[in-house]
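G., before I forget:
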Amino acid sequence: MGVVVEGFREAFRLLVTLNDEVLGITLRTIQVSGSSTLISVLLGIPAGAVVALNRFFGRAFLIDLINFGMGLAPVVVGLAVWLCFTRYGPLGMLNLLYTPTAMIVAQTIIAFPVVTGLTLASIQSVNPKMRLQMLSLGATRGQYLLLLIWEARLGILAAVIAGFGRVISEVGASMMVGGNVRGYTRVLTTATVMEIGKGQFELAMALSILLLLLNFFVVSVMSRLQQRGKI
Amino acid sequence: MNSVLEARDLRLVLKGRNIFAIDQFTLQSGEVMALVGPNGAGKSSLLLTLALLQTPTQGTILFKGQTVSRDNLFVLRRQMALVFQEALLLDTTVRRNITIALRIRGVLGHEAAVRTDRWLERFGILDLARRQARQLSGGEAQRASLARAFALEPEVLFLDEPFSSLDYPTRKVLLRDLGGVLQEMGMTAVFVTHDPTEIPYLATSVGVLHNGRIIKSGKVQEVLGTQLPGREEFQLWPD
């Protein structure tokens, strides 16, 4: 019980004093997970819409793959990215291993299927007659897609929330391709694991509380957006 | 009168099932045609095909003498409007539902505002302009849907059982209002219904569909006779 109380006390102290290192770790967490979520959204929403609205050979298998990807183990993604970026890997010449960029790549691979799969399901759930109604208004392909995304926005925002939640909380891939380098690739999850390893439970708890607060803040902003105008 | 919409040798087969086979269909300017028939007769499929939203398996459609093809589909669709059985409004305010539809057709600014207000007022829902569409009652939503369709000022209006999900009093009032507007505007329209009692309120002509074929067509009086009785007294298609 003492550890828990101490953890809360330490978290409060860190928040109030804005310790430079903790602030840096928090900002890096926002930068890495925010960037990977943004990239996943930019790629995943159009990808989900294209798969939802078109019939083509191999579509069913592609949907299987997307849904399978939603549950991809972060350590497996981390290993795959590590193998690509390692010195002798196919992308070794880019020298990206143990950089925030490698972490963004790994996290994007984790979030992309989540955003794509949930976008696909959201667009498919729009009343098929509503789609005809949009076309009957004379909408071009682009206008039709925008209107559909608007109608499916509740589900799509849920996809963004799920994607962000998945990457901000993952540790395996970030640890593997980022290396938890102090002041460079250390994020809240990898720092927490490290502090537990060192026996610094209070600091680990403080970092965890910061992680939860950050996650809650971002998710609540998106939830407000999602629920605006809803009963 | 000029023909606005014509179809020749029109057939639709879906999943091996013949939905309809229409040798000749003509809609004159200012004509309001009721397509009636039992469930599964092919009424809605024919309506969607004429509204250029369903590609026929075979046949030709001409809009104002122009043959419909893949190349002119968008342009021609923008001269039509469609109202479904359920009011399919976008998840935004009533006003924005109309302005978005007008924007799609390139009507913006003052012109869009004037048209929106005019048609909201004409259908008695100007006071609901700022209301979220999903918070409207069934009758209000269908009025908004009709206001949107009329604001587009289409050459042909298609209505797919627009009142069948409404209660009787609401339906009666709306039928009277829509009938008035159609007559006042001299609008060309096709509406689908399985309720023959709606015909005298709206239509100038009737096409009776049965098993995908038009088995009877002509002016309302010719098809219905001189009586305008209750629904149970009609025998427009075989049992």
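Chain B touches chain A at residues 48, 51, 53, 74, 77-78, 80-82, 84, 86, 88, 90-92, 100-101, 104-105, 132, 135, 152, 158 (CB under 8 Å). Chain B is about 35% helix and 25% strand.

More on Monday.
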